Amino acid sequence: MIHIYYVGHSAFLIETEKEKFLIDPFITGNPQAVDTLDSFDKIDYIFVTHGHGDHLGDTVEICRRTQAIVISNFEISQYLGKKNISCHPMHIGGSFEFPFGRVKMTPALHGSDLTDENGNVVAGGNPCGFLIEIHGQKIYHAGDTGLSMEMHLLKEEHVNVALLPIGGNFVMDIYDAVKAVDFIQPSIVVPIHYNTFDLIKANPKEFATLVGKRANVKILNPGDELILKA
Ligand code: NI
Ligand code: MN
Question: pLDDT tens digits for 126-152?
């Protein structure tokens, strides 16, 4: 069984019998999160899609507590490496076979600069998404992105679950996210990155109606989980 637990915004905890993964662990300051950092005491890997605070989030603190390995782009890995955090650097289009399965770093249309603890802006490389294969199930986390033709290439990957931003303004709105579903053709879609802040208001039920029969839309509230049979 693979438990895909929605922390809120773009953050997920994925749990198997053997491993625990976090994606974009924005917990402190996340108005949607129902958890505290203490909920994440044993984490093996953290995926970071880009450097923005609502995605890099609590990565540093969680790594200090759990010794988790961060999977991110080369530039964010260098930044975190200077803080003595273990990283596995990748870059767009690259894939790597991890003990749990293959991970491919996919393109995202967005920014990635990060702000360090002194308020200085640090270049964070290119933003990304992740195609994560965990014990045979394929999960695609799009990161923050606009609609892109590259998403069409994911169709042949037979994605089981696509985690897609729908909030607009910084990312796809519900209409473009429907086009993304058309491109990707996943079995299940979970809308993310909406209603956390005023600028990213969206109606997930309207999104589900527009997706129609293209895919099974699962609207998760923070604290909900989706369970896949591995
Ligand atoms: Ni962002
Ligand atoms: Mn964001």
Answer: 999 999 999 999 999 999 999 999 999
Quickly tell me which residue has 């505290």 as its tokens: 36
Choose among 27, 65, 63: nearest CA to 45.
Answer: 63
Ligand 2 center to 26 CA (angstroms): 10
Q: What residues does the ion ligand 2 have nearby, CB within 5 Å?
A: 54, 144
User: 């473009």: which residue's tokens?
Assistant: 176
**Angstrom distance (rounded) from CA 194 to CA 111:** 18
Q: What letters, b where the CB count within 10 A reaches 16 and e where it falls short, cover 194-206? A: bbbeeebebebee
Q: pLDDT tens digit string along 196-227?
A: 999 999 999 999 999 999 999 999 999 999 99
Long-range contacts from 155-158, C-beta under 8 angstroms, 24+ separation: 155/183, 155/184, 155/185, 157/131
Burial environment of residue 115 by CB neighbours within 10 A (0 to 12, 13 to 18, 19 or more): middle
Give me ligand 2 centre to Cα 53, in Å: 8
The DSSP bridge pattern shows strands 87-90 and 137-141 to be unpaired
Q: Which domains does the chain have, with CATH numbers?
A: 2-224 (3.60.15.10)
